[in-house]
Each structure stands twice: as structure tokens, then as C-alpha cells.
TrEMBL record:
<dbReference type="InterPro" id="IPR034291">
    <property type="entry name" value="TMP_synthase"/>
</dbReference>
<protein>
    <recommendedName>
        <fullName>Thiamine-phosphate synthase</fullName>
        <ecNumber>2.5.1.3</ecNumber>
    </recommendedName>
</protein>
<dbReference type="GO" id="GO:0009229">
    <property type="term" value="P:thiamine diphosphate biosynthetic process"/>
</dbReference>
<keyword id="KW-0784">Thiamine biosynthesis</keyword>
<dbReference type="GO" id="GO:0009228">
    <property type="term" value="P:thiamine biosynthetic process"/>
</dbReference>
<feature type="binding site">
    <location>
        <position position="93"/>
    </location>
    <ligand>
        <name>Mg(2+)</name>
    </ligand>
</feature>
<keyword id="KW-0808">Transferase</keyword>
<keyword id="KW-0479">Metal-binding</keyword>
<dbReference type="GO" id="GO:0005737">
    <property type="term" value="C:cytoplasm"/>
</dbReference>
<feature type="binding site">
    <location>
        <begin position="41"/>
        <end position="45"/>
    </location>
    <ligand>
        <name>4-amino-2-methyl-5-(diphosphooxymethyl)pyrimidine</name>
    </ligand>
</feature>
<feature type="binding site">
    <location>
        <position position="112"/>
    </location>
    <ligand>
        <name>4-amino-2-methyl-5-(diphosphooxymethyl)pyrimidine</name>
    </ligand>
</feature>
<feature type="binding site">
    <location>
        <begin position="189"/>
        <end position="190"/>
    </location>
    <ligand>
        <name>2-[(2R,5Z)-2-carboxy-4-methylthiazol-5(2H)-ylidene]ethyl phosphate</name>
    </ligand>
</feature>
<dbReference type="InterPro" id="IPR036206">
    <property type="entry name" value="ThiamineP_synth_sf"/>
</dbReference>
<feature type="binding site">
    <location>
        <position position="141"/>
    </location>
    <ligand>
        <name>4-amino-2-methyl-5-(diphosphooxymethyl)pyrimidine</name>
    </ligand>
</feature>
<feature type="binding site">
    <location>
        <position position="74"/>
    </location>
    <ligand>
        <name>Mg(2+)</name>
    </ligand>
</feature>
<comment type="pathway">
    <text>Cofactor biosynthesis; thiamine diphosphate biosynthesis; thiamine phosphate from 4-amino-2-methyl-5-diphosphomethylpyrimidine and 4-methyl-5-(2-phosphoethyl)-thiazole: step 1/1.</text>
</comment>
<feature type="binding site">
    <location>
        <begin position="138"/>
        <end position="140"/>
    </location>
    <ligand>
        <name>2-[(2R,5Z)-2-carboxy-4-methylthiazol-5(2H)-ylidene]ethyl phosphate</name>
    </ligand>
</feature>
Length: 211
């Protein structure tokens, strides 16, 4: 909280190499961090395990001087091997209880909620954040249930005690709406990775989020 009790929102970059449009992956992430990204998730669906670990370690080295945590999507083994700061899991990934047993104390655990039942169940889990997923329809991820939309985010805010992240279809035009309706963390892929300048995009998104 700031001194006037305005919540400080986190800008969370979720990576997607194809969305970087052929530009150097590490350059895109570092530009975004310099522009204002405060958390990074490495989301790799097609890399071999070894390449995933190598990428996680290199990213961890880049993020360390900025004090920006690295979260690994789906894979606790990769997170442990790279000494990442946490893991994000969805409803078809490793169950929270097992993940919690495998991760050392103090690591970040993020969980996606795709339905009201997921939100209610997540009250039993000591997670770092609950992701309202997806907030809006998005071409970046198509294996989804129904988007929550703003009314759904408001419902989750009323029914969850967790810190909330919102992800899916968020850009500079709607980020403020997500931030003022209950999401403390705003997670973004394409509006940063595919922007002509990831630095400018992150900077504008951060400003728009706090306006
Ligand atoms: C911050 C954040 N929220 C939601 C997701 C989606 O996770 P999941 O449902 O497991 O889908 P995949 O990302 O694994 O395709 C996320 N990755 N990050
Ligand atoms: C990984 C993920 N999980 C839910 S929606 C999504 C993709 C979000 O991508 P974008 O920010 O480009 O809409
Ligand atoms: Mg997953």
C-alpha cells in the first residue's frame, strides 16, 4: 500500500516466444522489465526439458539485478533446477497440495481459476495469487473455458480472499478496468511481447493501470 492506501499493482509479463515476432527473446523481456514489468513468468510449451531449464537459468540471471521474480509455468522440476522464485499451475497441472510439498518454503505459487468452483476450492490453498483466467477472450490461448469478463472478476473479488491476478485480452485500453475491479496483478502476453517497443508498451500499461 502507498501512504494514501492506493493499492500498488504488479505488472506481470507472461512470455511467449512466437509472440516476440522473431526478436531476441531475452531482449524483449529485459526491455519490458526496464519499462515497468515487476514479475515474469516463463511459459514454454514446446521446449525440451533441458532447453527449458537453460532458458530459465539465463532469465533468472537477467532478472536478478532488477529484483524481479521469475515464475515457471507448469513445471516444478524446471523451477527447482533453475532456482526460480515460483511456479504457476492451472486446473490440469500438478495439484496445489503436491506442488506445495515439493517447493521450498517461501516460493511463489500461482493458480488459475476458470470457474466459480475453482475459486471456492482455492480458499483451501495457501497460494500467492489466484489468476482469473481468462478475463477476456484472447487469440493467445484458445483452450479456455468462458472468459470471466468484468462482472466475473467482481464476483471473484467478493468470493475470494486471495490476491487476484487477471489475464487474457488485457491491453492499454482495458487495463484500468481490470485494476479497479479487483485485480492486484495484471498479467499480459501479446500487448507487451508483440509491441513494437516492449519498453514503451510496459511503461504505458503501467501508467494506464495507475491513472
Ligand atoms: C498468470 C497466469 N494466469 C493463468 C495462466 C494459465 O495457466 P493454465 O490454465 O495452466 O494454462 P497454461 O498457461 O499452462 O496454458 C497462466 N499461465 N498465468
Ligand atoms: C497464458 C494465458 N492464460 C490465460 S489467458 C492467457 C494468454 C494471455 O495472453 P494475452 O495477454 O496475449 O491475451
Ligand atoms: Mg498450465
Amino acid at each position: 500500500m502507498t501512504t494514501n492506501d492506493t493499492p500498488v499493482h504488479q505488472l506481470y509479463l507472461v512470455t511467449d516466444e512466437p509472440a516476440c515476432l522473431g526478436r531476441d527473446f531475452y531482449w524483449v523481456v529485459e526491455e519490458a522489465v526496464q519499462g515497468g514489468v515487476t514479475m515474469v513468468q516463463l511459459r514454454e510449451k514446446h521446449l525440451s526439458t533441458r532447453a527449458f531449464i537453460d532458458r530459465a537459468k539465463r532469465l533468472k540471471d537477467i532478472l536478478l539485478p532488477y529484483n524481479v521474480p521469475l515464475i515457471i509455468n507448469d513445471r516444478v522440476d524446471v523451477a527447482l533446477a533453475a532456482n526460480a522464485d515460483g511456479v504457476h499451475v492451472g486446473q490440469s497441472d500438478m495439484h496445489f497440495d503436491m506442488l506445495n510439498e515439493m517447493l521450498p518454503e517461501g516460493k511463489i505459487i500461482g493458480l488459475s481459476a476458470e470457474s466459480e468452483e475453482d475459486v471456492v476450492e482455492a480458499e483451501n490453498f495457501d497460494i500467492s495469487y489466484l489468476a482469473v483466467s481468462p478475463l477476456f477472450d484472447t487469440p493467445t490461448k484458445t483452450d479456455i473455458k468462458k472468459p470471466w469478463e468484468i462482472a466475473g472478476l467482481q464476483w471473484v473479488r467478493k468470493n475470494s480472499t486471495h490476491t487476484l491476478a487477471a489475464i487474457g485480452g488485457i491491453n492499454a485500453n482495458n487495463i484500468r478496468q481490470a485494476a479497479t475491479n479487483g485485480a492486484e496483478i495484471i498479467a499480459i502476453v501479446s500487448a507487451i511481447c508483440s509491441a513494437p517497443s516492449p519498453y514503451e508498451a510496459a511503461f504505458r500499461l503501467k501508467s494506464a493501470m495507475h491513472d
